[in-house]
Specification:
The structure is a single chain. By secondary structure, the protein is α+β, with helices and mostly antiparallel strands. It contains five helices and 15 strands. The strands form six sheets. Strands 1-2-3 form a three-stranded parallel β-sheet, with no helix packed on it. It has a three-stranded antiparallel β-sheet with strand order 5-4-9, with no helix packed on it.
Length: about 300
């Protein structure tokens, strides 16, 4: 059995990878030598995320985060200037966590998505890349890119993924083309502690088979999650878990409606409207058309 100890250095002396007077190669070699496999793994990912949900564990760090401008449950800013200031302060707070509270203090790269328009409230959305390509008009696409860059600069965002990049990252449970609407909490209801409340009642199991008693039971206002690399909640594993949501859906208007599901792995809708409980790939499924009466 062999072991090793990494010396911390004399008091007041920065570790080699933190020493700006050393070469980049020397600092990188020192940092890699100190990193665990988990820390190296997390430095491979740029994902949407923040520190709002305590179930998200970023203690190993992460390469980059696409940080939402408004914290969950907070009122939206009243002006673009206020939004930019609030977003900058939010990014600084999150960056401080990674620099000061993770083991190695590796800062993140805050980024945003601007493939066919900046993904922010008030920004202009242009056709998807395939639609822009179908114009066969490079000059027009160039003007679109310039307009996107202008809005990005005005919003005070320094990092973005966009038309100037050959790399596009799309997390598994996310959507790059949102073509159906997430059901809002006002149209969902469930019973908890003898009373009805908005949202669906979720039972979270620590196995993928819905077996035994759920480890956690809570009410989720909406079923719209991005658990790409994180556990749904403390006490639930990062993989090989299952969730059962129960409750009622109120249809807002008369007519023909569709119920859709999109995500990784398997999912099943009660009454077998949608059943793909044995799947393992990202996919979207939409039920057959169903007629419902308003308010039911």
């Amino acid at each position: 059995m062999a072991g090793f100890v990494l010396a911390a250095g004399a008091p007041g002396t920065p570790l080699p990878y933190r020493n700006p007077h050393l070469s980049v190669d020397a600092r990188v070699r020192d940092l890699l030598r100190r990193m665990t496999p988990e820390e190296k793994f997390w430095q491979l990912f740029m994902i949407p995320g923040d520190l709002d949900d305590p179930a998200n564990d970023y203690s190993h760090g992460v390469f980059g985060l696409q940080i939402s401008a408004t914290p969950r449950g907070a009122a939206p800013p009243t002006s673009p200037a206020e939004a930019a200031r609030a977003h900058a302060a939010r990014i600084n707070t999150i960056q401080q966590y990674f620099v000061e509270r993770t083991r190695l203090g590796i800062p993140i790269i805050p980024f945003d998505e601007a493939v066919h328009g900046l993904v922010r409230d008030g920004a202009t959305m242009y056709p998807q890349a395939i639609g822009l390509a179908a114009t066969w008009d490079p000059a027009l696409v160039g003007r679109v890119a310039e307009a996107i860059a202008s809005e990005t600069i005005l919003d005070g965002i320094r990092r973005k993924l966009g038309p100037s990049s050959d790399v596009r990252y799309a997390p598994g449970p996310g959507r790059t083309v949102r073509d159906f609407v997430v059901v809002p909490a006002a149209q969902l209801s469930s019973e908890a502690n003898g009373r009805n409340e908005p949202g669906l009642r979720g039972g979270y199991f620590d196995n993928p088979r819905l077996e035994g008693a759920p480890r956690i039971v809570r009410t989720d206002p909406r079923v719209d999650f991005g658990w790409t690399l994180n556990s749904p909640a403390r006490g639930i594993p990062f993989d090989w878990y299952s969730v059962r949501w129960t409750g009622a859906l109120t249809i807002p208007s008369e007519g023909v409606n569709r119920v859709g599901v999109q995500g990784n792995d398997g999912y099943r809708h009660h009454h077998v409207v949608v059943d793909r409980s044995r799947g393992r790939r990202h996919r979207r499924m939409v039920s057959g058309r169903t007629r419902r009466r308003r308010g039911r």
